[in-house]
Amino acid sequence: MAIRLKMVLSLLLSAAFLVSTCHGSLLLLELPSEIHPLRPRSGSSGDHVAGLSCLSWRLGVETNNLIGWKTIPQECEGYMGNYMLGEQYRSDSRVVAGEALVYAAGLDLAGDGKDVWVFDVDETTLSNLPYYAKHGFGAEPFDPTPFNEWVLEGNALVLPESLTLYQKIVSLGIKVVFLTGRTEDQRSVTETNLKNAGYYTWEKLILKTSSYSGSTAVKYKSSERGKLEKKGFRIVGNMGDQWSDLLGNSTGLRTFKLPDPMYYIS
Ligand SMILES: *[C@@H]1O[C@H](CO)[C@@H](O)[C@H](O)[C@H]1NC(C)=O
Ligand SMILES: [Mg+2]
């Protein structure tokens, strides 16, 4: 019943969104803020480009059927930009975070302070969309130098759907652990960025140390989650935008995959 009510509410919210975008003004309800102000170009979804369905390619990525890729197909860059900056990415994120929220609310928690939820950072709790809007949506190979400069600016934005989930997690008494591929030297800027984005409290922020240089994200994250379990924590949920956040060992009771068709991390 509660779920049905939520669905109706979210339909109403979508309707309000449509009304507000058609008339260019907010008529009914306060809407969640845009992550990044660029709007998709209308009529250029680029679904089929040179015989390739970019939507099918994106689906292949999200289902972990396409793995190990270095760049998105060149001809899909326009499509991917429209997707990431448009309503579909937000809607896809909303479904994932909404499902996680219902799941978390239904957990039978021990209440002993040992239940934890693991969140990835980039494209999970924080969004680097301004960076990708400037540097492209994945058709060029990832370049760590300008990306790390961007990270050190500390201006990554919030992914609003994840913040809503985070707030619920905290209110349920589940402890939050951020587990990120960002490196230890980026700790203070990451802490500040998380706080500025609305993530005020956490149990641990785990960043990659040099001992993991050369190992995959799956290995690094599995190992760090294993350490949490050895300390007696129970990972009741685990959310990330990469399959490498969610595969391997000690993955948690349930995993949630946020959309990210722009890059692949093994
Ligand atoms: C998972 O655990 C097994 C057994 O300890 C180990 O051999 C394997 O390397 C681990 N996998 C990852 C991805 O850490
Ligand atoms: Mg990530």
From TrEMBL:
NCBIfam families, from UniProt?
Answer: plant-AP
InterPro entries of this UniProt entry?
Answer: Acid_phosphat_B-like, Acid_phosphatase_pln, APS1/VSP, HAD-like_sf, HAD_sf
Q: Which Gene3D superfamilies match?
A: HAD superfamily/HAD-like
Could you confirm whether the keyword Signal appears in this record?
yes
Q: Where is the signal peptide?
A: 1-24
Concerning its family, UniProt says: Belongs to the APS1/VSP family.
Q: What Pfam families is this protein classified in?
A: Acid_phosphat_B
The family database entries (PANTHER family) matched by this protein are listed as: ACID PHOSPHATASE-LIKE PROTEIN, VEGETATIVE STORAGE PROTEIN 1-RELATED
Query: What molecular function terms (GO) are annotated for this protein?
Result: acid phosphatase activity; nutrient reservoir activity
Question: What is the protein named?
Answer: Acid phosphatase
